[in-house]
């Protein structure tokens, strides 16, 4: 089945409906949060939503488009309604050791393998994930067009945001609770003032810029 075939039906739940009509009863979506962050972990989640009205999670959308309160409400609904869901967290040390893209794909695969019951078809946001033993489709901006991917994006982001808020208590000088480890002006200012902590990814040095990454005495990191 092609993407154009699926897009003939409108709505966030159209992809799952179309796939179920073709015999794929359990459609899983997978997505990650934290790929573009410069500190903290990567979180990858997978979700199978039920068929029919129970699978229509109120307020569900791409997690990036939701407020904090709306994401938390969606998270609770997804956990309550899902046929299966899972989340995998990858530390910044593992990201530096293995590489971001490889960690991203491995985490998505681990999250999908953790689902029970197993999916019949897999939809992923952006990246294809091989080695699952079932057919799948990598979708551009999938969290905006497929409900199961949107649900996975919510699970991943809420999980990661909670981790970053807890991390803020250990490293209050960086403001992790506000920017969640992304390269905001406030985060860059904290790096200039305090240098890196152990939750900063070394693999993102150049992404922040040489002038932004300096230690507490002004030497480049």
Describe the protein's architecture and organization.
The protein is α/β, with parallel strands linked by helices and 221 residues long. It has 9 helices and 5 strands; from the N terminus they run ααββαβααββαααα. It has 2 domains: 165 residues, 2-Layer Sandwich (Nucleotidyltransferase, domain 5), CATH 3.30.420; 40 residues, no CATH class. It has a 5-stranded mixed sheet, sandwiched between helices. A hairpin with an 8-residue loop joins β1 and β2. α3 crosses α6. The N and C termini lie far apart (49 Å).
CATH homolog superfamily of the largest domain: Ribonuclease H-like superfamily/Ribonuclease H
Number of strands: 5
Structural class: alpha/beta
- Give the CATH architecture of the largest domain: 2-Layer Sandwich
Q: How would the global form be characterised?
A: globular
Q: Which fold does the CATH topology of the largest domain refer to? A: Nucleotidyltransferase, domain 5
**Main beta-sheet annotation:** 5 strands, mixed
Uncertain regions: pLDDT < 50 for 5+ in a row?
4-9, 206-221
What count of domains describes the coordinates? 2
CATH class of the largest domain: Alpha Beta
Q: Could you tell me the strand content as a percent range?
A: 5-15%
What is the CA-based Rg, rounded?
18 Å
Distance between the termini: 49 Å
- Could you state the order of secondary-structure elements as H and E? HHEEHEHHEEHHHH
Major sheet strand order: 3-2-1-4-5
Number of helices: 9
Fraction of residues in helix: 40-55%
Q: Mean pLDDT, nearest integer?
A: 89
């Amino acid at each position: 089945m092609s993407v154009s075939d699926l897009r003939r039906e409108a709505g966030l739940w159209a992809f799952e409906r179309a796939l179920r009509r073709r015999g794929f009863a359990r459609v899983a979506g997978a997505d990650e949060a934290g790929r573009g962050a410069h500190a903290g972990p990567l979180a990858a989640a997978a979700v199978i939503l039920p068929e029919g009205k129970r699978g229509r999670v109120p307020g569900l959308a791409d997690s990036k488009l939701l407020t904090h309160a709306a994401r938390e409400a969606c998270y609770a609904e997804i956990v309550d309604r899902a046929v299966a869901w899972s989340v995998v967290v990858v530390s910044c040390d593992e990201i530096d050791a293995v590489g971001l893209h490889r960690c991203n794909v491995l985490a998505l695969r681990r999250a999908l393998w953790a689902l029970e019951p197993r999916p019949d078809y897999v939809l992923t946001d952006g990246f294809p994930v091989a080695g699952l033993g079932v057919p799948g489709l990598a979708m551009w901006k999938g969290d905006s067009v497929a409900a199961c991917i949107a649900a996975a994006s919510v699970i991943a982001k809420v999980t990661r945001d909670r981790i970053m808020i807890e991390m803020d208590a250990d490293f209050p000088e960086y403001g992790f609770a506000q920017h969640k480890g992304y390269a905001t002006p406030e985060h860059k200012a904290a790096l200039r003032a305090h240098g890196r902590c152990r939750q900063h990814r070394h693999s993102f040095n150049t992404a922040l810029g040489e002038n932004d990454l300096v230690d507490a005495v002004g030497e480049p990191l």
